């Protein structure tokens, strides 16, 4: 018994002494090179002798971590690992006291030669409100650009004009390493930034400059892209130049040069090509390589452009950037359109043929300054744009009624010369005070003028005696100006650490004018000297909007919210002159303004609810009773009794991403209800010509949703990705036709699926399928409805074997169910390219064949509430192009010559190595 009591006593003593053992706390914060917190980074303490894990934790939403351990008498080390950024390691002889490691910046180009750590790089990582795509996880052609890469990323959609949406949200800004690139929107990078120098694509909510300054959460429903370049491409210079020549004398050439030194970056881009045409969307990007952001959705374009961009941190307080772009393009197109125009009691059809040529020269210059000192931040961006163009259109059309009886024909031959100049300036000022309150001011000033002269020779023949034929030989001068001045001043006061209130006022003044002055050709004198009163008109608008408002802001780690209440005080003076008579109308309105959002975010989930109530007044051309007879077959006249537009918009977004299972999804649901809309009111006569005015209707609405799911797997050298997306919409559009209110109920469903299999670096196979279904149901039309189905089935293969040889194939089948007679419904498109790298990757020779089967076409169908339209435009068909690319890179004093695979390619492989 005594032995038991003694043993029990010593046991309690041991437990008590263990409980009293001193705990050591190790803390720190982990960020990337852009000072963004690294969330869910793995932080572990390991034994030096055998790498046994002693304790591990994950960083929180601020990138912070805390390890509680007992004292360590033996050698140990901290290892911090992030799936995209890499690793950090710090060794300790012993650990006897608390340690604060401060802020740890993980830089992928910092190598520790003592060991090798191989990380499995994740394709997607979610960090707080930012989604990061690892560019190296998505295989594209060796010569692909940023646009081609974005088309591969789950959740991304891009139309032929370069408009980008991510998970249903519009993108209105592209940054390169956090800085502007050729203008404030940065879309020049789409066609000119090579994909092989991109490390990450980061998607976050768009923030105004002052929201970035103050640290406020975004109140926008738009997205911002930040393109992060590979670290080894930012210390020295890089030059990539490509030249190509092909069949039918096709050619292309491009150059991309970057020079980096510290915070200084100098970029030169240039391109020239005659194959920048619509339809090249399978592996080429919509325009291949080249272009300076100017895109053409119709016809074949020859484009030459050059641009220079400079960014530098001059000192601790001042950042500067400047850019210049010169562009020349020539577009040629032949268009065939067949349009069924919907009426309550008949359907008439208009068939038109047009040949167009357009040549444009453009100059764009901008510079930005950002000044930061203590609690003061100032950003200014003035820019100037000039463009001149010459366009020629030769066309004819005919309209027949439902019984195929010809009612009118038109011919036209127009030539227009245009010169446009504009100046704009963005200014943001932020000042924080000692009590943590702050004042921010922003302004946008834009001044622009366009001068156009058109020579028009046209005619319209009407086969009903109720209307005379029209013959024109006129010279029209159109001078328009558009000036706007926007100012916003706001003061924000903190109530608690997480609650702020703001009061402010915005003021907008706009001054616009359109002056059409037309002269008839006098055959007796051979001069243009008689005023054509039907085509001469003047519109002028001066609008003032005062918007006082108050804001409530909540900003916690997981929960944030914004509520803004205000009033829009409108005063709009509308003035017009037509046929010697003047029209004047002043609109005064006081309308409420309301917007708000709430966001909740946890480790894996994010949801956000947004609401806004928007209003706007009708334009002068919609209000004034002045006729616009510029069209041969329609006349437009305003309605002075119009009410303002008023609409409610609600958006619900939800996202989930689980790094452990490597899967995630995003969902977006938006609803818009138009309390008051301005719509067309159309009356059609016996000659099938139309008189159009405007009316108000109530009750138009639209419901749109987007869903995307992605998951990745890896087993050995095999990597698999599944991306599924679904876009859908339903809405009601109302208008007036022949005095009757019509209704068009539109349904749209578009699922898509893309699978991807990578076998190491040797083979990529990616099949895909997209279906687009649209259906319109009509009330008070002769037909009850119309529907259309398109299918796109494709497969892409990229083979890299032997080591320096790459072979890419893009094959697709396209089908459109309801093209009109004479329009092809389906076709196959097969593109292939072969490239070979030699001389230590300094030279790359290639050959590509576009449209091998010579079946490509541009037949499209559009279904709207007023018409069903089929179109055919010029498009490139089969050609062969031979190219030679020259790479000259030198980073950190060393060339980019490969080191027999011992150095990582920073994302282009299946994993990342740290030495």
Automatic annotation (TrEMBL):
Classification via InterPro entries? CarboxyPept-like_regulatory, OMP_b-brl_3
Where is the region Disordered?
A: 279-304, 893-915
Pfam name, any one:
OMP_b-brl_3
Q: Which residue range or ranges hold the Outer membrane protein beta-barrel domain?
A: 433-886
Q: Where is the composition biased (Polar residues)?
A: 893-905
Designated name of the protein:
Outer membrane protein beta-barrel domain-containing protein
């Amino acid at each position: 018994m005594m032995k038991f009591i003694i043993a029990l006593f010593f046991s309690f003593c041991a437990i008590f002494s263990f409980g009293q053992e001193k705990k050591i706390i190790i803390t720190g914060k982990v960020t990337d090179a852009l000072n963004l917190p690294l969330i869910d980074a793995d932080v572990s303490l390991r034994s030096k002798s055998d790498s046994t894990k002693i304790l591990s934790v994950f960083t929180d939403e601020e990138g912070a971590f805390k390890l509680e351990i007992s004292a360590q008498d033996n050698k140990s080390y901290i290892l911090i690992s992030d799936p995209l950024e890499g690793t950090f390691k710090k060794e300790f002889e012993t650990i006897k006291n608390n340690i604060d490691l401060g802020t740890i910046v993980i830089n992928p180009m910092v190598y520790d030669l003592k060991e090798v750590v191989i990380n499995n790089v994740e394709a997607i990582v979610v960090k707080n409100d930012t989604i990061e795509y690892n560019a190296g996880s998505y295989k594209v052609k060796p010569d692909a650009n940023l646009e081609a890469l974005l088309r591969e990323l789950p959740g991304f959609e891009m139309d032929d004009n370069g408009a980008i949406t991510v998970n249903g949200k519009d993108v209105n800004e592209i940054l390169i390493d956090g800085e502007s690139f050729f203008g404030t929107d940065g879309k020049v990078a789409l066609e000119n930034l090579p994909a092989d120098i991109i490390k990450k694509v980061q998607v976050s909510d768009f923030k105004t400059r002052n929201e970035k300054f103050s640290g406020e959460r975004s109140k926008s429903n738009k997205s911002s892209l930040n393109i992060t370049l590979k670290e080894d491409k930012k210390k020295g210079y890089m030059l990539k130049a490509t030249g190509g020549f092909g069949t039918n004398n096709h050619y292309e050439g491009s150059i991309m040069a970057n020079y980096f030194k510290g915070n200084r970056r100098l970029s030169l881009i240039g391109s020239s090509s005659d194959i920048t045409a619509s339809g090249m969307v399978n592996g080429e990007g919509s325009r291949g390589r080249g272009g300076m952001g100017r895109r053409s959705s119709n016809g074949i374009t020859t484009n030459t452009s050059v641009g220079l961009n400079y960014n530098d941190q001059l000192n601790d307080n001042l950042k500067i950037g400047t850019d210049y772009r010169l562009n020349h393009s020539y577009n040629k197109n032949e268009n065939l359109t067949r349009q069924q125009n919907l009426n309550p009691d008949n359907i008439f059809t208009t068939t038109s043929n047009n040949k167009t040529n357009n040549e444009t020269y453009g100059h764009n210059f901008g510079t930005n300054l950002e000044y930061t000192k203590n609690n003061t931040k100032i950003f200014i961006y003035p820019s100037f744009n000039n463009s001149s163009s010459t366009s020629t259109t030769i066309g004819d059309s005919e309209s027949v009624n439902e019984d195929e009886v010809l009612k009118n024909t038109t011919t036209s031959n127009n030539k227009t010369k245009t010169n446009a100049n504009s100046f704009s300036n963005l200014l943001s000022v932020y000042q924080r005070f000692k009590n943590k309150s702050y004042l921010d001011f922003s302004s946008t000033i834009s001044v622009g003028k366009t001068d156009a002269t058109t020579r028009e020779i046209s005619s319209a023949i009407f086969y009903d005696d109720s209307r005379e034929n029209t013959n024109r030989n006129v010279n029209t001068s159109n001078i328009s100006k558009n000036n706007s001045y926007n100012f916003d001043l706001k003061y924000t006061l903190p109530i608690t650490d997480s609650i702020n209130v703001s009061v402010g006022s915005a003021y907008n003044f706009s001054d616009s004018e359109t002056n059409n002055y037309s002269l008839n050709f006098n055959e007796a004198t051979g001069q243009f000297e008689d005023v054509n009163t039907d085509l001469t008109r003047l519109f002028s608008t001066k609008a003032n909007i005062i918007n006082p408002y108050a804001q409530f802001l909540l900003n916690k780690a997981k929960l944030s919210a914004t509520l803004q209440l205000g009033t829009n005080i409108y005063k709009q003076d509308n003035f017009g002159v037509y046929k010697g008579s003047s029209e004047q109308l002043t609109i005064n309105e006081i309308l409420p303004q309301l917007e708000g959002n709430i966001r909740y975010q946890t480790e894996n989930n994010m949801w956000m609810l947004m609401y806004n109530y928007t209003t706007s007044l009708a334009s002068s051309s919609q209000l004034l009773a002045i006729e616009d007879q510029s069209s041969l077959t329609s006349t437009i006249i305003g309605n002075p009794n119009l009410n303002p537009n008023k609409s409610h918009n609600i958006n619900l977004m939800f996202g989930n991403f689980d790094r452990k299972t490597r899967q995630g999804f995003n969902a977006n649901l938006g609803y818009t209800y138009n309390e008051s809309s301005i719509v067309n009111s159309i009356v059609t006569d016996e000659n099938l010509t139309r008189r159009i005015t405007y009316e108000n209707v109530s009750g138009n609405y639209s419901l749109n949703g987007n869903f995307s799911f992605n998951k990745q797997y890896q087993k050995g050298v095999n990597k698999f990705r599944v991306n599924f997306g679904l876009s859908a919409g339903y809405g009601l559009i109302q208008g007036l036709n022949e005095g009757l209110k019509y209704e068009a109920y539109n349904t749209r469903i578009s699922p898509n699926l893309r699978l991807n299999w990578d076998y190491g670096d040797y083979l990529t196979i990616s099949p895909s399928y997209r279906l687009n279904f649209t259906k319109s149901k009509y009330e008070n039309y002769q037909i009850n409805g119309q529907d259309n189905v398109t299918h796109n089935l494709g497969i892409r293969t990229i083979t890299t074997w032997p080591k320096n040889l790459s072979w890419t194939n893009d094959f697709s089948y396209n089908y459109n169910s309801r093209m009109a007679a004479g329009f092809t419904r389906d076709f196959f498109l097969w593109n292939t390219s072969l490239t070979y790298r030699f001389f230590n990757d300094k030279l790359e020779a290639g050959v590509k064949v576009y449209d091998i089967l010579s079946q490509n076409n541009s037949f499209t169908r559009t279904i709207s509430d007023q018409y069903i339209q089929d179109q055919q435009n010029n498009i490139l068909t089969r050609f062969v192009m031979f190219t030679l690319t020259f790479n000259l890179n030198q980073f950190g004093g060393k060339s980019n010559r490969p080191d027999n695979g011992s150095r990582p390619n920073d994302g282009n492989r299946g994993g990342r190595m740290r030495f």
